[in-house]
Design brief:
It holds the Pfam family Fer4_6. InterPro entries: 4Fe4S_Fe-S-bd (IPR017896), Corrinoid_activation_enz (IPR052911). There is one protein chain. By secondary structure, this protein is of the alpha/beta class. It is about 25% helix and about 25% strand.
Length: about 240
């Protein structure tokens, strides 16, 4: 045992999003009972590459007595993770592979191959990617804003008619993009335009929590009181609200 710098994860702050796991190149972190945990001191080099990926500020570097960092043990662990595919399984649950081709889907009652259903697009604005939309635009004025995770339209078959219709939409991915930028951009959009309400639609996977938190923070930082709604889409294509 030596006194050295090592990662510390605050369990109370951790929401189990899993964003820290792929950021740890040593495979030292995994989800245990919905919380990020340091698997073993010897796997952590204390550099803290995972810190910047945590939207909750739950990770920091501390000094304490710990087992020495063991490069050989790390390589052995990485080899085991690779061979067992645990790198994906132990990371964000939203990255886990699932074959939905055999899933029952209750959203559609049309089963005949002879029927072709065509739905008119309900998209009111372009671009839709949050990184690309301007802070101020005519389509934001007097708008009901829909902030949606970019997987939602693929998973939810009634997306256009149920969520997108009569709303101005922006999309993003809290796992791949900087949620701090999302907060700044959405705050500016809400401040600079006459927004009536905000709906955030996400997938049921933990990493989507980052988008909910970003939208909530943006509404708060804007200083405006807006109607706010959260919609959760399950991976098999159903909708629930919370």
């Amino acid at each position: 045992m030596v006194t050295r710098k090592i990662v510390h994860i605050d369990e109370e702050k951790c929401n189990g999003c899993g964003l820290c796991i792929p950021a740890c190149h040593e495979g030292a972190i995994q989800l245990v009972n919905g919380k990020a945990k340091l698997v073993d001191d010897k796997y952590c080099d204390g550099l803290g590459d995972c810190i910047g990926e945590c939207p909750q500020g739950a990770i920091k570097i501390i000094e304490r007595e710990a087992r020495e960092y063991d490069k050989e043990a790390v390589q052995e662990r990485l080899n085991n993770l690779e061979s067992s595919n645990m790198k994906v399984k132990g990371g964000c649950p939203g990255a886990s592979m699932r074959d939905l081709s055999q899933s029952d889907n209750n959203n559609s009652s049309i089963t005949s191959n002879d029927i072709e259903l065509k739905i008119k697009s309900q998209l009111k604005n372009w671009p839709v990617q949050l990184m690309l939309v301007p802070d101020k635009a005519p389509y934001f004025n007097n708008a009901d804003l829909l902030v949606t995770a970019d997987c939602v339209p693929f998973a939810y078959p009634n997306f256009h008619l149920d969520l997108l219709k009569n709303r101005t939409a922006v999309i993003g991915c809290p796992k791949l993009d900087n949620t701090g930028y999302y907060v700044e951009k959405l705050t500016s959009i809400i401040k600079e335009n006459d927004i009536n309400s905000v709906t955030v639609a996400v997938m049921e996977v933990p990493c989507c929590n980052g988008l909910i938190q970003a939208v909530q923070k943006a509404v708060q930082d804007s200083g405006k009181k807006l109607d706010f709604e959260q919609v959760i889409i399950t991976i098999d294509g159903n909708k629930r609200q919370r």
